[in-house]
Amino acid sequence: MSLAADAGAPVPMPRGRRRAELLMLVFALVVVLFAYAAVGLGLKGRFPPGLPVYVIVYAVLVLAAHAAIRRFAPYADPLLLPLAALLNGLGIVMLYRLQESGHNGNPGQPVALMSSTSTEFQLIYTGIGIVCMVVLLILVSEVRVLQRYTYTLGALGLVLLAIPAVLPNSLSYVNGAKIWIIIGKFSIQPGEFARLALAVFFAGYLVAKRDVLALAGRRVLGIDLPRARDLGPVLIAWAASMLILIFETDIGTSALLFGLFIAMLYIATQRTSWLLIGLGLFLFGTFITSTFVPHVAERFTVWLHPFAGSNATGIAYQPVQALEGMAFGGLFGTGLGHGQPYFTPLVQSDFIFSAFGEELGLVGVMALLLVFGLLVQRGLRAAVTVKDPFSKLLIGGLSFVLALQVFVIVGGVSGLIPLTGVTTPFLSEGGSSLVASWILIGLLIRVSDSARKPAPQPIQDEGMTQVVRAA
Amino acid sequence: MNRALLKVSLACLAMFVLLLLNVNYVQAFEANTLADKPGNVRVFDQQFSYQRGAIIADGDGNDLKIAESRLVKGTGNYQRYYPYGKVYAPVTGFDSIYGSSGIEETENSLLAGTSSQLAVHNFTALLTGKQKQGATVELTISPAAQEAAYKALETNTGGHNAGVVAINPSTGAILALAGYPTFNPNELTSLDGTTVDRNDKKLLSDPSQPLLNRATQVTLPPGSTFKIVTSSAAFSTGKVSGTTSTIPAPTVLTLPNGHLLHNDDDESCGDGNPQIIEAFYLSCDTAFGGLGMKVTAPVLRQYSSLFGMNRPLSIPIPVVPSVLPEGAGWTDQSLTAYTAIGQYNDAVTPLQEAMFAATVADHGKLMQPYLVQQVVGPGLSVIQSAKPAPMTGTGISARVAGDVQSMMYQVTHNPAGTAYATAGPQVTGGITIDGKTGTAQNGVNNTGLNDAVFTCFVPGTGGGASPIAVGVMVEGGGYGADAAAPIAVAVIKAYLAAHPS
């Protein structure tokens, strides 16, 4: 005993910082608790009746996640779980708020596509997401083992992506996008999971091929162009995202997938030319598509001229409601339960950010953006620190695409860029997105754990082993 | 790969910075612009949840509330209420859940409290947890004059459409602005959409057009009151040197196109070559028709502009322009003779009639008419205050105004003057009123009813400023002296009774 202690003394043990995580987690839970109480007070002037049940269930779920991290990823970044828990909790609170106020403020009628049990379901999905994350932590001890399933996951990703396109509309089409698999009362958005599977595939493929892809071809205008024969994978990824755009009328998924691929290609090869080629291809493809897919062209009109003519009451009604709602919230917001976010159609999914803008104000949404930004930063930090190139690439790409997703949806909702329907991670209603987000957190936790784990102690002297053997 | 990751991190940072800038733009910088977008349902709904500012008629210094928001019991919503119903409707307009008019519309952002001028106040209210409140709009309207005007219109016009405007000539402050028929704005204030809809449809389909503002939105031929403009132009351009200069005034004037211009009832005008002052108080059409031809149409138009015509006005409620339009052949001499007596292409609002008199009353200077005296924020701080100013591009010389005034004096003081019987000192109780009547013929071959017009003012005493000028137009009312002048007299009497000097 004393010998072992002496041997360990000169090397300071990296701290797991699990206690810090717990502390921040409790803080996140308190914020969620207060927000939930504020909704009840704001809407009806009393504490919501389900307050103890909801909060206890949610607390048990995230504390269980914390316990699992202590057991299976003790060196993980302590910020990841509290940040995710805060976002997820606030998302549930906002859904509860929308569910309670109802369509146009009539509690009797639910907001379109919401039901009187939306909050319960979101809580159940949170549970499923956390369970998936824990299972991932248990099964995948090192992210690099996923590299073995590069092509399996690639094929799975493509199949998941393609399913909605081949299904009849009745089983795949909701609100202008053919991206669902509808089974009875349940629906899943396979694209959310496809993105994760394809990220693994891209990472595996690029780690294997990055030396070849980094080879320079001709030099044009100071940029080293890749060799023409290496363009293949890029063109395939591009074609796939264009097919999604056309057959599933989903600019969001297509942009995120392509962005993911290009970012990972760039991280793998460090060639700016890939970036430019990718961006050029995407803009070209979107432009061509917009000429014959009215859905896409309309998005541009809505973005550029939301208030022109009858747009504000017609095609731009939704973004105009969102903008007016956010503007109405102003600096400090109306307070939870005091605004009218329900005027914005689909406020519970694509436009949930505008509901936060209206009720929590500029300060609230800036805080939310900082939480997202911090999450992205922790992911990128893990990517920089971890040594294994596959993990580095996978996590770097996924962190970037998380930032891109927030940029695309928040930018779309607040009128910075044309609107594309992607979910707001952790906040939007919907199980697929939530479960996929928790799996992403699982991957981040796993990689950050690998990155921060102290290197295994080398066996220091032969004699000691002999001593042990003799005993 | 870390070098590339660093660049990717910078890209992520850039995206978040852009988002942060954009939410600041939307929620802080653009917030007011977005709040003012038509059909902003949140601003719309919110306006009933706090008290909209009151509209006050402060012309008599007694702070009379003519529009206020009252809490509807048990709902937490405020409903607009107009204590005097129809009387102030042409001024306040209405504020309904579907729209607004009048001062309610033009001063909406102040009344509703959304104006950027109230931003500081709203911010402190937010911090101190006080309820948001709109600003109070204080009008120049004199309740005494306004109520007299409305009552006179209702009882004296025999159901004809009519409008009255009274102005303080030295400031441009509008003292009364009344119309008939009009509507009761309380019919449109219900918070229940179907009720508002039903009443709105009823008002819109009413053939008497009660929603039309007769004082500012209807133009009629000015008739003989336009002789104020014609004589001002003649004096100013030297076509007539003074009030005692004689001008030809035949019983019948043969126009260049062969048409005959008669005096009213074919009366002769003095000795056929009277002084202009006599032709004025007798209101001889042949004299001023002939004079107009000498002055020419472009000069008449120029002088009509100096009296405030030919431009849109906002007081701040919108006023249709009173015009002497340039059209094909408008300089034709025969037509100019009709223009000069207010019978051809010239058309004016009752407000413009008041402005004719106000210009003369204020020694040739026309002050910009206005309704809003000041706007007082919820904290009783004055956030906007009227600054009387002459209307740009208007005004005639004091000498000419003096000449016209002495002619207008004769109209009511010479026993032969057209308004002696109805606005002379014996009916005004000693108040001096200088005026001009107008009786504009209407319809094909003048078969329609004549429009009665009267414009007048009370001259300042002892070198003081004139207290009030009034314009009255009664559509199809008959003789200006009979149908219009008594209304003006009633307004003046009521106003001066409330403002003994």
Summed up:
The complex is a heterodimer of chains A (471) and B (501). Chain A has 471 residues and is mainly α. Chain A has 16 helices and four strands.
Strand line-up across the major sheet of chain B: 3-2-1-4-11-12
Shape of chain A: globular
Indicate the mean pLDDT of chain B: 90
The total of beta strands of chain B comes to 15
**Sheet/helix structural class of chain A:** mainly alpha
Kindly estimate the percentage of residues of chain A that lie in beta strands according to DSSP.
Answer: under 5%
Q: Spans of chain B of 5+ residues with little confidence (pLDDT < 50)?
A: none
Most extensive interface between two protein chains, with residue counts: A-B, 53 and 38 residues
* Rounded radius of gyration of chain A (Å): 24 Å
Order of helices and strands of chain A: HHHHHHEEHEEHHHHHHHHH
- Reading off the top of the CATH hierarchy, the class of the domain at 223-371 and 389-498 in chain B is best stated as Alpha Beta
Intertermini distance of chain B: 91 Å
In CATH, the architecture of the domain at 223-371 and 389-498 in chain B is 3-Layer(aba) Sandwich
Calculate the terminal CA-CA distance of chain A, rounded to whole Å.
14 Å
Largest sheet descriptor of chain A: 2 strands, antiparallel
Helical residue percent band of chain B: 25-40%
Gross morphology of chain B is elongated
User: Which superfamily, in CATH terms, is the homologous superfamily of the domain at 223-371 and 389-498 in chain B?
Assistant: DD-peptidase/beta-lactamase superfamily
Main sheet summary of chain B: 6 strands, mixed
Q: Which percent range describes the beta-strand content of chain B?
A: 5-15%
